[in-house]
Structure formats: C-alpha cells, structure tokens
Write a structure and sequence with these properties.
The chain is α+β, with helices and mostly antiparallel strands and 54 residues long. The chain has helices at residues 3-12, 35-39; strands spanning 16-22, 28-33, 41-43, 49-51. Strands 1-2 form a two-stranded antiparallel ribbon. Strands 3-4 form a two-stranded antiparallel sheet. The radius of gyration is 13 Å and the shape is globular.
Length: 54
C-alpha cells in the first residue's frame, strides 16, 4: 500500500478527521487520527470491513 491508500483506509473507517483541532499539548493541527475508530474494525480476508467483536 502507498501512503494515499493508507490514508484512504483511515478516512473510510472514519478515523482520519480533518478540520481544526487543538491538541492536548496546546498545538493546533489540521488532521487528527482517532485510533480507536480504526482499531475497532477489522479487515476480513475477503477485503470486507467488519466490526470487531472480542
């Protein structure tokens, strides 16, 4: 996968947020990766995205 494909995966999972964010450090950012959104799903061998269940 190239960088754009990885970013598309994050966007598709709703994990990559774009806008204006004030980080806990006080710095500002135009993007934010909400890891819990991405890691709460899994990719099935067929390539289908399915919700993760423990």
């Amino acid at each position: 996968m190239n960088t754009e494909q990885v970013l598309d995966e994050f966007r598709g999972a709703g994990a990559l947020r774009e806008g204006h964010f004030i980080l806990s450090s006080g710095l500002h950012s135009g993007t934010f990766l909400q890891k819990i959104w991405f890691f709460s799903i899994r990719i099935a061998p067929s390539g289908c995205v399915k919700p993760w269940r423990p």
